[in-house]
Every structure is written in C-alpha cells, then in structure tokens.
TrEMBL record:
Family, per entry: Belongs to the class-II pyridoxal-phosphate-dependent aminotransferase family.
Obligatory cofactor(s): pyridoxal 5'-phosphate
Annotated protein name in UniProt: Serine palmitoyltransferase
Pfam families: Aminotran_1_2
Superkingdom in the source lineage: Bacteria
UniProt keyword Glycoprotein present: no
Domain Aminotransferase class I/classII large: residue ranges: 47-390
Species per Swiss-Prot/TrEMBL record: Edaphosphingomonas laterariae
Transferase recorded as keyword: yes
Higher taxonomy: Bacteria, Pseudomonadati, Pseudomonadota, Alphaproteobacteria, Sphingomonadales
Molecular function GO labels: pyridoxal phosphate binding; transferase activity
Keyword annotations: Pyridoxal phosphate, Transferase
InterPro entries membership: Aminotrans_II_pyridoxalP_BS, Aminotransferase_I/II_large, AON_synthase_class-II, PyrdxlP-dep_Trfase, PyrdxlP-dep_Trfase_major, PyrdxlP-dep_Trfase_small
Length: 401
C-alpha cells in the first residue's frame, strides 16, 4: 500500500531493526516519578538524571513551586487566548519585567516556547529581499524560522569566522541581513567565538545579530545572561532569544532587545499572535525563577565544578568527547555508530544513569552521541557515581579498555 506515510518506511524499518536486537527504545522513556532535579524513578529504578536541561536545578525550587501554585489558585489553569487578545495577564507582564531586569534591556517579549520565539523572530524580521545568515549546525527552530519566512538563507561552516566573513562579503551591500548565532551549540556543547564573529559581521553593512542563548542562560557571564555577556559583546547583539525550558526550569520562550521599534513585533509576529499564551502558573514560576537566577552565584560555581570534573573523568577513561575541555554544562560522548550508542545508552540506564541519545538529523551528519548535561544540584557523590557507571558501561560495551 502506498500513501502519504510511505516516505517514512525506511525510518520505520531502521527503527524496527534496532529494536529487534533487543535494546530498549531510547525515544520512549517514561519518568514514572521525578524526585528532584537530579533523580527520577524509571521502571522502578532510582535513576540519576544526566540528560535534562535543568542546568540550575530550578524545577523543585520551593519559591518557584509556591509561585506556580498561587497563580493556579488566583488565575486558573489557562488563559484560553492569544497574548494580543485576552491572553495577557499581569503575570505575563511581570515575567517580561523580570526578563528586562535580568538582561538589562528595554524590551522583552514572552512566547509560548523557545521554538516559537526563534520561529517568530527570524520569520518576522527577515522578509522578502532580506538575508538570514546562519551557522550550519543551528538548532531546528532556527532552520524552521528560516523556512517560515521569505528571506534568502545563507549557511556558513559551524563556528567558522572566516566562512561567515566570506559569505557576508558575497551579499549585496544594500540588502538587510540578519546573522543568527548560538552561544552554546547544544549537540557538542561547544561555544561560539562571538567576539571574532561580531568583528567579522561589523565589517559588512546592514547586518543585525540575533543570538540564541538557550543553553547559556543562568550560568555564563557575571549576570548569567549568556555566552555573549561572558565574552563581552553585549553592545553588539541586537536580539537575544532564550527559553524557560532549560535553566529557568519551566516552559516558554522569549526575545529581549533594545531596538526602539521592538514592540511592533507584538502585532506582526505570527507565532506570537496566533497561539495561546502561557498559563498563569507557568509565567509565575518563570518570573520567580528568573529573579532567583540573578543571585545564583553558588549554583553557577557548583555547575562548572561538576562539568569540569565529568569532562576530565570521562576523558581520562578514554572516551572521545565533543570538546577538548568543558566549555559548557553539556558534555557529548562521541560514539562510532548507532548500535554501539544505543547499547551504551542502555547499559547506563540499567546502571541507573539517564543520558540523552542523539543522532542525525539532530546531530551533524554521521554523528552519534550520548549527551550528558549537568545540573548545579548534582552532588559530588552523584558525579562520582556517574563516572563509575560510565566506566562500567563503557567496559561492558567495549568502547573503552
Ligand atoms: N534554541 C535552542 C538552541 C534549543 O536547544 C532549544 C531547545 N532544545 C530551543 C531553542 C527551543 O526551546 P524550547 O524548548 O523552549 O522550545
């Protein structure tokens, strides 16, 4: 039988062949209970969570949880409407105030997810006749933002300042251009050389820069704004996109900016206008979390300690990692093929460690990896346990000696 689903046959067969080898499905895990930012029960087994985006461990913060409960009582379960109609409550405005304070910007716009923030910003500000210049390893939401809009798309080699410069040089000088970068690239955990990139962009006329700081918010830079703050290029960045689904510990997305005409986006940005706004409980948890992240120096220090320790320990055991040194809270363990990656993933799960398995198209072509992401709430003991279990799993599967 041939129908619209026939194009998925190869994927269905590949997946079935993998499951027929007896491994568990890495994309069908259920967290039966979640005890803390770092511990869940999966199929009856206490499991250390090493594959969440809960970098700062805010999901169970008592103030955050209390704010959510109060908003649920006071404002109900949902807004049932768009931000531009009945869906802006005082909580959405408070959340935008918290973001403006956190980022030190004039404007902040809250979207229902980070995915929609990229979708909306890129497709709206870059239109017909304009150009979007993006890193080849950009997140899917950035690519989808390009697909939704009408601008011409130009890709440059991942993190290559030279290629960025070269490609900008080929574009018409009088055309308007949006350069989209990420602070932390989430598959390998590497960071962008933003000062060099900004310098390259500034050589060319009519360019604006948008940086996605999804994986940098909370623990890069003196105020936790992201890699662009850490590397001192705040003044050169026109738009910062981010998410509440990582360090903030809930769900939602945003863009902050000092552009004087920014507020017009509330009228023309379709992924902002044509969708329901976040529930009051969610914006209350986000605002409380963002305000607490302004004073989270101790958590930041502990997160970096965890990340450096895990990186050094795994490297010493002989694993191949995505970066030479720990550049972020993401540590990617590179493996040769899908089968060994799934076996390693399963061995870890059986030993009580959950990590994310990533494969193309989420990863660059031909790259299979186990993505470890650390949390400020991982205790020293948990990091020690994780390392021991990685050694045991790696030896059992035969990917280290
Ligand atoms: N940008 C990047 C770089 C991301 O990694 C993600 C999510 N993984 C997003 C945007 C989308 O964020 P959200 O989960 O809020 O949709």
């Amino acid at each position: 039988m041939t129908d619209l689903f026939s194009k998925f046959d190869a994927l269905i067969a590949e997946r079935q062949a993998l499951l027929d080898t007896g491994v568990r499905d890495p994309f069908a895990i259920v967290m039966d209970e979640v005890k803390s930012p770092t511990l869940a029960i999966i199929q009856g087994k206490p499991t250390i969570l090493l594959g969440t985006y809960n970098y700062m461990g805010m999901t169970f913060d008592p103030d955050v949880v209390a704010a959510g409960k109060k908003a649920l009582d006071d404002f109900g379960a949902g807004t049932t409407g768009s931000r531009v109609l009945n869906g802006t409550y005082q909580g959405h405005k408070e959340c935008e105030e918290a973001l403006k304070e956190f980022y030190g910007t004039e404007h902040a716009m809250v979207f229902s997810t980070g995915y929609q923030a990229n979708l909306g910003m890129i497709s709206t500000i870059a239109g017909k006749g304009d150009y979007v210049i993006l890193d080849a390893d950009s997140h899917a939401s950035i690519y989808d933002g390009c697909a939704l809009g009408n601008a011409e798309i130009v890709r440059f080699r991942h993190n290559s300042v030279e290629d960025l410069d070269k490609r900008l040089g080929r574009l018409p000088a009088d055309a308007q251009k949006l350069v989209v970068l990420e602070g932390v690239y989430s598959m390998l955990g590497d960071i962008a050389p933003l000062p060099e990139m900004v310098a390259a962009v500034r050589k060319h006329p009519n360019c604006m820069i948008l940086v996605d700081e999804a994986h940098g918010m909370g623990f890069f830079g003196p105020n936790g704004r992201g890699v662009y703050e850490e590397l001192g290029v705040e003044k050169d960045i026109d738009f910062v996109v981010g998410t509440f689904s990582k360090s903030v510990g809930t769900v939602g997305g945003f863009c902050v900016s000092n552009h004087p005409k920014f507020e017009v986006l509330r009228l023309v940005c379709r992924p902002y206008v044509f969708t329901a706004s976040l529930p009051p409980s969610v914006v209350a948890t986000a605002a409380t979390s963002i305000r607490k992240l302004m004073h989270a120096g101790d958590k930041r220090t502990h997160l970096w300690k965890n990340s450096k320790r895990l990186h050094a320990g795994l490297r010493e055991m002989g694993f191949t990692l995505g970066t030479e040194t720990a550049q972020s809270a993401i540590i990617a363990v590179m493996l040769p093929d899908q089968e060994i990656t799934v076996r390693m993933w399963q061995a870890l799960l059986e030993l009580g460690v959950y990590v994310n398995m990533a494969r193309p198209p989420a990863t660059p072509a031909g790259t299979f990896l186990l993505r470890c992401s650390l949390c400020a709430e991982h205790s020293d003991e948990q990091v020690g346990d994780i390392l021991e279990r990685f050694r045991a799993a790696g030896q059992a599967v035969g990917c280290i000696g």
